[in-house]
Amino acid sequence: MNLNVVAKNISLSYKGVEALKDVSFTLEQGKTYGLIGRNGAGKTTLLSLLASYREPTSGSLFIGGEDPFENRNIMPHVGFVYETNYSDEYDPPSSYFEFAERYRPNFDRGYAEELASRFKIPLNKPLKELSSGKQSAFNATLGLASRSSITILDEVYLAMDAPTRDLFYKEVIEEQAQHPRIMILSTHLVSEMEYLFDHVLILDNGKLLVNEPFDELVSRGAAVTGSSKVVDEFVNGMTKLNSQQLGDTKSVMIYEKLSEKQWAEAERQGLQIGPISLQELFIHLTKEELKDD
Ligand SMILES: Nc1ncnc2c1ncn2[C@@H]1O[C@H](COP(=O)(O)OP(=O)(O)OP(=O)(O)O)[C@@H](O)[C@H]1O
């Protein structure tokens, strides 16, 4: 079943709050998407549409060519896991696995138990008694082992410690190799997760600011460093994200695909051009006002 996602001009308003504004994108099987945005940018709102928890106020959303809302052909194939409050949950992980086995067509119980063992999650202890890190790892386990064609993980990694997150990232890569699907990872941990992303979506105040393959996006960011006057002349007319100066040395972050001619010109003028990370792009693209100095 080819369950690609096509979103066209989607907007969603809560009472008085326009959380998503005219957002369009497509998602393809086999790719891992990084969904990034500042607090309140609309990430969870967007994911709740994909999971059919809500309907858009306007625009259209298709999964596998069909409207997913209350659609029994589609919903079992969309797995949405997010930080859940288990403080009143007496059921143990094993009960959730039984439930998932019944309702998730691709759920792999053997893999879920293997992951639980690697994450050291006790299978028969009430969820309310697990530490928050183990609860997060349990959520990630459910998401990975469900092997849903559309697997959505909304910030489930925040409470995990660093070694557990590392284990989780390795599983994401391994799962995409063995059981390719659409994986959407919503996160604030941009710097440590960026190597997982094939494609990046950046939401900013409900608008889709970036919708690009990871490699293309980062190749458009660069830090130009050199003598202040030469740098200023070189970056004149380019989109500038940030600048720093120490004595006569200036470094300007640009958001621009440089041509071969520009690279050669930079070299001729003794300028250094270095890469910038997705995290830096994210910080500067979504700050309140772009600097223009
Ligand atoms: N149920 C709701 N009722 C009213 N407004 C809401 C509701 N849920 C979210 N919002 C508003 O919609 C906007 C987007 O919220 P959303 O939770 O989608 O952002 P987010 O990017 O997931 O944020 P965070 O990173 O803080 O989790 C915010 O302004 C938020 O206050």
From TrEMBL:
Q: Name one Pfam family in it.
A: ABC_tran
UniProt entry tagged with the keyword ATP-binding: yes
Instruction: State the protein's name.
Output: ABC transporter ATP-binding protein
Q: Which CDD domains match?
A: ABC_DR_subfamily_A (cd03230)
* Source organism of this protein record: Evansella tamaricis
Organism lineage reads as:
Bacteria, Bacillati, Bacillota, Bacilli, Bacillales
Q: Which residues form the ABC transporter domain?
A: 5-230
* GO molecular function, a single term: ATP binding
InterPro entries from the UniProt entry: AAA+_ATPase, ABC_transporter-like_ATP-bd
| Entry keyword set | ATP-binding, Nucleotide-binding
